[in-house]
Every structure is written in C-alpha cells, then in structure tokens.
Known about the structure:
Region (Disordered): 79-103
Number of strands: 0
Low-confidence stretches: 91-103
Distance between the termini: 67 Å
Shape: flat
Transmembrane segments: 6-22, 54-74
Largest sheet: none
Strand content: under 5%
Number of helices: 4
Helix content: over 70%
Oligomer: single chain
Mean pLDDT: 81
Keywords: Membrane, Transmembrane, Transmembrane helix
Structural class: mainly alpha
Amino acid sequence: MQTLYANLMGSVVVVWALLRIVKPQPAHGLFDGVARTLFSAWQAYALAHGATRLLWFFFAVEVSFGLVQLLPWWRARPRRLTGPSTAGSCRRSRSLPGIGRPS
C-alpha cells in the first residue's frame, strides 16, 4: 500500500514538473510555492511527532525552494499599508485619455 501511494505521488510530481518545463507561467511558481509550504508543514508535523531525522534534510530543501518561489510574489504584492501602490496609479492613468501613453 505504501508503494502504491509513493507511485501515485511520484506520478503527480512528474506531471507537474513536465507542465512547468513545457509551459512555464508565473502562476505555476506561485502554486508550486504554496504546495511546498503545505508539504513543509506536513513534514514539520511529522518531525514533531517522532519522524526519522533524515526528514530534516528534505524539510530544509522544501522550505528553501518554497522561499525561492514565493519571494518574487511577496515582493510584487501591492503595498496597501505603506501608501498608494504604483499599480493603482497606473490603472488611474490608463482611464484618463492621453495620460501615460506616448504621443
């Protein structure tokens, strides 16, 4: 039964990796980062409940790659608390005729 689950999860991972290679999109990085965060949380849960110490290596790898994939999204988020975002001002300028467009 464990081999069945390992093969099923391995199949999902391979298909997801092929999707990311064949048709890369920024949203795929976001989804992968969220999935890595969830997977890391389950690994942390297992470690807290007596899993083998070998899992620490995989936990560190998952957290590292999750950060690499989520940091660009975190930096690009709108800054609502610190002042007006540039994305909002771009939207306003597009709604006014002639502003923000080359003449």
